[in-house]
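pasting for ref
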Amino acid sequence: MIFIENEGITDPRVNLALEEYALRNFPARDYLLFYINEPSIIIGRNQNTLEEINLSYVEENNIHVVRRVSGGGAVYHDFGNLNFSFITNHDVKSLNNFLKFTQPVINILNSIGVAAELKGRNDIVVNDRKISGNAQFSTGKRMFSHGTLLLDSDLDEVTRALNVKMSKIISKGHKSVRSRVANISEFLPEPMDIHHFRSLILKGLYQEQPDFETYHLSPDEWKAVHKLKEEKYATWDWNYGSSPKFNIQRSKRFPIGEIDLRIFVEKGHIESLRIFGDFFGKEPMESLELLLQGKRYDREEISEALEPVVIEDYFGALPKEDFLDLLYGEDLPYL
C-alpha cells in the first residue's frame, strides 16, 4: 500500500483531480489518499446539481460546488471532515463491496471506542446515525472506493447548503437529514482535532498494512493534476451542466437509490433523455441516454433497444423491467 501525500491541499477541485489522476496514471498498485476540503458540496456523478443545492446560500457563503466521478448523493465537506480513498485494481468482487474498503477504517474507529458499523448500501453508522458515506468509481481496469469521516463538521450547514428531496427523507423514515447524521466527536471519550484524528486513522491503517510507503508527487505530476483541475473540476460545464429541456419527468426510489428521468418527447420520439440519481453504476450514463435518443416513445421499441443492455452496469442490482416501467408507464402525464 502506498500513501499519497496531498501536501495539505484543501481545494476540493484539486483533491478530486489528484484522485482521478492517480487512478488513471499511477502504476497498478494499491494506494491510499487522504484529503480535507474547505467548505464545499460534492455532487454525485449522475445528479442534477441545481436540484441538490441551495444555490443562493451556496453563492452567498462562497461554498465550492464540485462534481465527482463516482455515483451516490451530494455531501457537504468542511475542515471537520476527513476524506479517504482506496485506489486499487478493478475486480468484480470489489465493485459495490463497500465492506471490503470500510472495514479497516471501522476497525480503527472501534479500537478508539466508536461503535461503528456498515449499514445500508454504503453508510458507516453509530447508533443508526451516519458518520460516513461512501462511493466507488471504476474505469474497468482500476477503481477507487472513497468515503467521508465526519469528525467535527458543522452539521447545520448540511441542511442550509443542501436541498434534500422529500423522497429521500421519507424512504429513510426520518423527518430531516440533520436527525440521522452525527459527528464522530460525539462518541469519542476525549476531544480530538482533525489533524490528530487523521494521524490516528493513518497509523491504524499502517499497522494493518505493514508494507506502507509514502509518495510525494513530482512537479510534473502536480502540473498535470492542476491541468485536470482547470479543464474539468473547475469548469461550470462539469459541475453544473446545462439544465435539460424536458416535458416528462419520472422519478422513483429503488433499493439501489433514486432514479430521476427527464425525457423530452417531440412528434412521438425521444429527442433527449437525461438520467439523474444517487445510484452507483459502472458505465457512463451518457451511453444509455444516447442509445434511446431518437427512438419512438413506445414501450415495445424502447424494450427492444434495451434488449442487449446489461442494465446492472448502469444502476447496480436493478431489474431491467423496473427501469422500463419507470421510463415508460401507461399513467404517465406530460408536464
